[in-house]
Amino acid sequence: MDPLHRSVLTSNRRKLVLSLKPSELYDGLIEKGIFTQDMIDEIKSSGPRRDQARQLLCDLERRGSRAFPASVRPASSPWQTSCWVANNHHQASLWSSHHQPLKSFLALSSNPYPFSYKMDASPCGHCLIINNVEFEPNTDLSFRKGSNVDCAKLEKRFKSLNFIQIRHELSLLSKKDHSQFDCCVVIILSHGTEVNHNRFPGAVYGVDGTAVPVQLITTYLNGEHCPSLQGKPKLFFIQACGGGQKDTGFEVPPDELISPCGGGADDQTDAIPLSSSSDSLSTSDEPDARATLPTASDILISYSTFPGFVSFRDPLSGSWYVDILDQILEENAVTDDLDTMLMLVNNKVSQNSANGVYKQMPGSFNFLRKHLYFQSPRDKLLLGLTAATTEPN
């Protein structure tokens, strides 16, 4: 496919997935020889309309130089009238010898995704990864083999999503000026435990053996303690056990399972027994006399496992949760919002089994007020390509 045609597909993929009606296009694509009936049947089997749209767009890029021109002719075709979007940054009309200029059917705006966070700052924000691998001898906390694999994957992934990698303490991160950024990400890889809590469950261990409640961790970046992040999404990803219980799951009909995966015999957990800990903040419910956002707004915490249960980590390939989170971000960040991607992570991790017996169920506490779409590395690259290939009138 021509690079310019691919740029239209890729830079507008999110809108296309949301609006495209693949069923209206199948007959024409078969007629023009772009796809065979078997190919279309395979796309149909990928799932509901949105999944079919996503698969169709991916497959179209691999169908040669004729695929794009054929898909936009004639002018009255459903494909042209209901999907193509001109690049909203450069408002360029694309021409070829085969078709008229492609017109945008969506209003051009600085934020093309209604009811979503602004995420176009460059860089988008800071990403702090706390990777606790080796603990002090007197803590009796084991060496977390495989955690460096997790750390490397996440560093690479969030760099590709246009985040700045930093290695400060959390307290220093909260004191930074985030005014020029749109988001902040904190990732914690450590041993964990269950604690008494009144907001968010669980605690993670520092290398000195101190259990730090998750609810205390989140307060560093909330609207009260970090004013420059007020109204901006603050994302916490936690790979740690939520307790010491092991989930053996329950039997379901075969058609409920997609493709169960087996964990390794050497899979380890990040579990430590229940402890008692709490933060120093007041739990009283004091009314706020001013019209403001709630202190805990715009926070999302993604846990690798359900509270009270262990989280599995392979010594060679890293943790189940991080490995699958990385895969989903790579495959879906172009088209899906964060909440949808985390649901995909939950589903895929739930298919794994340790020693064919034990299960793991990630989950999240979502206090975001809007949809969140990450910047796509391909979007940025292709926006530059479109700008370079568009000539002034």
Your description of this structure?
The chain has 393 residues and is of the alpha/beta class. Helix content is 30%, strand content 14%. It has helices at 3-11, 13-19, 26-31, 37-44, 49-60, 67-71, 78-82, 147-160, 170-175, 214-219, 320-332, 338-350, 377-389, and strands at residues 125-131, 163-166, 183-189, 192-193, 203-205, 211-213, 234-239, 261-262, 268-269, 271-272, 299-303, 312-314, 318-319, 352-353, 363-367. The chain has a 6-stranded mixed beta sheet with strand order 2-1-3-7-11-15, with helices on one face. The longest helix is centred in the middle third of the chain and has 14 residues, at 147-160. The protein starts with a helix and ends with a helix.
Q: Note the beta-strand portion.
A: 5-15%
Q: What's the helix-strand series? A: HHHHHHHEHEHEEEEHEEEEEEEHHEEH
Task: Give the mean pLDDT.
Answer: 75
Percent range for helical residues?
25-40%
Largest pleated sheet: 6 strands, mixed
Features:
single chain; 393 residues; six-stranded mixed sheet; four-stranded mixed sheet; 13 helices
Brief summary:
The chain has 393 residues and is an alpha/beta fold. Helices cover 30% and strands 14% of the residues.
Strand and helix map with partners:
Elements: H1 3-11, H2 13-19, H3 26-31, H4 37-44, H5 49-60, H6 67-71, H7 78-82, E1 125-131, H8 147-160, E2 163-166, H9 170-175, E3 183-189, E4 192-193, E5 203-205, E6 211-213, H10 214-219, E7 234-239, E8 261-262, E9 268-269, E10 271-272, E11 299-303, E12 312-314, E13 318-319, H11 320-332, H12 338-350, E14 352-353, E15 363-367, H13 377-389
Parallel strand pairs: 1-2, 1-3, 3-7, 4-10, 7-11, 8-14
Antiparallel strand pairs: 4-5, 5-6, 9-12, 11-15, 12-13
Helix pairs in contact: 1-13, 2-5, 8-11, 11-12
